[in-house]
């Protein structure tokens, strides 16, 4: 009996020290979130599930977790999704999403117990997305613009997506590719001779596609080396909790 009590107390303490995540679907249609842990990190909820309109789901991850969360759209009974698909299955189980898809990215409890988080459009865009911090779970350290503040892309970029980047279904744009995915060149993909911040500058590209994303969503990553205006940090109190909202 005493052993059972000890195990319950250990479990309760472990949960209290874990990071809480809340996923909320504010879209007027069903979304299928995809989840993927970084190498060596757990993948929560078997990597994916169905989230009906205006529904929420909560889960916890341990200290030091890192990974990504993305929305999938228009998934059928076979698990195939029009955007963000992870291999024709609802539970991604360690598979990433096929671009284009909007990403919420996290690296928790890093150097100095600091969390890093961002919304990335490097892999393209399919839905508006926002990262909120759960009140009472964090502490600000400098009150700066990127210190424990919401991150996101709130505008529907499908409305302004250039035709050469657009993914269409029944005549409607349902996702917007990155220039790398659309053209697969070293310059657009920041690889080869263009694999450093100095040699991969979107302002020097043949067409500055990231500027379209950046003007609409100034605090989201628009391409690989867009760190300065896109990375957010926070410290837990004791462990930071996050809410990821689709269609904020």
Question: What can you tell me about this protein's structure?
Answer:
Strands 2, 4, 5, 6, 7, 9 and 13 form a seven-stranded antiparallel beta sheet that branches. A five-stranded mixed beta sheet has the order 3-1-14-8-10, with no helix packed on it. By secondary structure, it is α+β, with helices and mostly antiparallel strands. It is built from four helices and 14 strands. The chain has helices at residues 2-16, 179-183, 186-189, 210-216, and strands at 19-25, 32-37, 56-61, 66-75, 81-83, 103-107, 114-120, 129-133, 138-139, 151-153, 166-169, 172-176, 232-236, 242-246. The protein is globular and about 45 Å long. It has a domain at 18-154 and 220-246: Thaumatin (Sandwich). Helices cover 12% and strands 29% of the residues.
CATH topology of one domain: Thaumatin
Largest sheet: 7 strands, antiparallel
Q: CATH first level of one domain: which class? A: Mainly Beta
Number of helices: 4
Low-confidence stretches: 5-16
Q: What Rg, in angstroms, do the CA atoms define?
A: 19 Å
Total DSSP E strands: 14
Order of helices and strands: HEEEEEEEEEEEEHHHEE
**By CATH's scheme, which homologous superfamily of one domain applies?**
Thaumatin
Q: Helical proportion? A: 10-25%
Q: N-to-C terminal Cα separation, in Å?
A: 47 Å
| Average pLDDT figure | 91
Structural classification? alpha+beta
Q: In CATH terms, what is the architecture of one domain?
A: Sandwich
- Net shape: globular
- As a percent range, the share of strand residues is 25-35%
InterPro entries: Osmotin/thaumatin-like_sf (IPR037176), Thaumatin (IPR001938)
Protein name: Thaumatin-like protein
Keywords: Disulfide bond, Signal
Pfam family, one: Thaumatin
